[in-house]
Amino acid sequence: MRAIVLGLCTAVVLTVRVADAQMPLPAAKPPDGATLFKQQCAVCHTLSLSEPARQGPPLLKVVGRPAGKIEGFRYSQGLANADFAWDEARLDAWLTNPQAVIPGVIMAYRQGKPETRAAIIAYLKEQN
Fold this sequence. Notes:
Helix content is about 45%, strand content about 0%. By secondary structure, the chain is mostly helical.
């Protein structure tokens, strides 16, 4: 009788473990743009025109703004001479590799993950 009970207990445990193994994992949270901005961008950039500029220019209302044109910020020559406005595609290319967009710029940050770039750009669009 004891062998039967142990056998049934083992079968129940195995059944529960198999059922647990088949449960889907919760979906991963998409990256949060605000958090990513604070972690990866806020060291050099603010989102306020009233705060003193940091190493990089303020990024408030950057989407649609002409590149290299904030009054009072000293841009590199390449950015000062830029002849485009920031849009999602240009920001994505910039965050991927700033040197490829404007050779000679000083920004060293690069983001290889498309989902991270998309979250940061979406957050910047919200700041417009």
